[in-house]
Protein 1
Amino acid sequence: MTGTAPTEETLVPGLPPFALDTVDDTPEVVLDLGRVQRNVARAAATAAEHGVALRPHAKTHKLPPIAALQIEAGAVGIQVAKLGEAEVFAGAGIADIFVGYPLVGPRKIARLIELLETTSSRISVAADALEVVVPIARAAASAGFTVPVVIEVDTGLHRLGVQPGRPTVELASRLADLDGVDVAGVFTHEGHVYTEARSMEDKRAMTQAACAALADTAELVRASGIPLATVSVGSSGTFRFAVECPNITEIRPGTYVFNDLSQLLQGAATADDLAAFVVATVVGRPEATRAVIDAGSKVLTSDRLLIGDPGPTFGAVAGYPGAHATRLSEEHGLLEFPAPTDLRIGDRVAIVPNHICPVINLADSVSVIADGTVVERWEVSARGRVK
Ligand SMILES: Cc1ncc(COP(=O)(O)O)c(C=O)c1O
């Protein structure tokens, strides 16, 4: 991965590095382990080279064996979105888990305390409001825990997050007064760079602006007497720029482990970095330029591409330049080819999904390929853990 603008060549995914008939049945999500390991190693090396911690977002893979690979390669821990994912990964022995999502409601807080009582893993949580933290602090204090809280700061995505500067300092000082929690840091997800940047220069500049807003805010919080340690930014499209930013301590990319059509279009990955495919079977050939496959929205999801103008696509057909899944029903995927193709009923194709994270979430298990053949089947044990 170079961080250069996508070209015709990088945008056209070639055939995957395995024979499609090595997969037992379809539709099947297939991981190429060699490519996964290469993606994992490269991000770890980028982080290490710049003296920045790597905390991959495990929502992409939802697989404890991949979290273990990431930790082995040097990651300090993982991020998850939901407590249900934290329960799975803590159970699998991941020692440091950041729940990067506000835990709201009595049942969630009871589960957080249960998790703390049953695991030796360090569990930190996100918040951007006093109302979120007060019940956590109260429950944690009465159970004898101190929960690290990382404050979410809005650096431009305008989703969750307190505003940088004084509003964050004010929230940090209110949180610092509470027993049961410890203000451990600040974090942001600069996801707006994906949709707003028009060039690589834009991406770099917007990432640097987000990093600077976060790092300056961290300095203000420290100047107010709260010695926070973590200053964390995160996305696969921006981490290579973020590591260059002064005073950032951590990056949290997720999708980089597999990549997808979005990451190709972002110029954040090349076709060689694609490590996850959906292998599907042709079940119909209604016209010379159209085929129907056994993977519809219940496999590929209906996620659209949010960037650029690639035309209608729910995924690219690997090895067939210009061919895309252009329409999905629940169980039918309609492929369109730019010219007549000789694919026949019963043939297999590999699809590169628009957005791999929700695709993994729909699969019970994935096939793992090493040196061209299926060597293992992994249960996606954190799939569906949305509570
Ligand atoms: C809070 C947060 N951090 C990190 C990430 C990782 O981003 P990506 O999957 O683009 O690497 C996400 C993605 O949704 C996120 O929401």
Note: Residues 57, 60, 100, 189, 234-237, 252-256 surround pyridoxal-5'-phosphate (CB under 6 Å).
Protein 2
Amino acid sequence: MIIEKFELTAFQQNTRVVACETTRKAICIDPGTQSDELVNFINSNGLELQAITLTHGHLDHVGGATDLARAFPNAEILLHKDDEDLYYGLPQQPLFMGIPPAQMAALGFDYEDPPQLTRNWEHGEIYEVGNLRFSIRHCPGHTKGHVVLAEETERKVFVGDCLFLGSIGRTDLPGGNYEQLIDSITDNILSLDDDFTVYSGHGPETTVGQERASNPFLTGVYQIGRGKFF
Ligand SMILES: [Zn+2]
Ligand SMILES: [Zn+2]
């Protein structure tokens, strides 16, 4: 499996190109913004971009879909239906993310309407990219339509903003729900074996085992602070 990371946007989002080494078929998981480097990587490595695969609809994960779709018009675009409002509302997202309108253009957050989605992810579907097989798991909580992509043979899972090294996604934005996020992580990520490498939407990589053992949101340490037992 080829995995190339591009840290994009003011949010330092991890855009990744993931490809099958044998067939050269590739996907781009969460194109954060326009990037010549990203397009050049795909072309210069002889990859065929099959799809723009979106974990969720936040601007730092979908903001580059328009330009990438222009560069690769045959690539399909996939997102869970419960995040369609976020996706098609991209030009309005900077407002509820707290970015002052006067600064949107300077920060690179002035968006046009994004391209039409090809179709929606279905929970439990297997998505093939050459010889790679991703199981698609609906993980609401950070947003309503967040999904993670798990490749069981390669022991890798791409988790977007559900789970980070030592932390979890924020749940205070529209559509967020803390209990739901913990349930999603427990059911769809911690159910994987400890040796799975976890590729997050921000920050460094980790493993399922490390987060199971030491992530304070998952070990119960933070539950006391939240008053769950009172
Ligand atoms: Zn997000
Ligand atoms: Zn993000």
Note: The chain is about 25% helix and 25% strand.
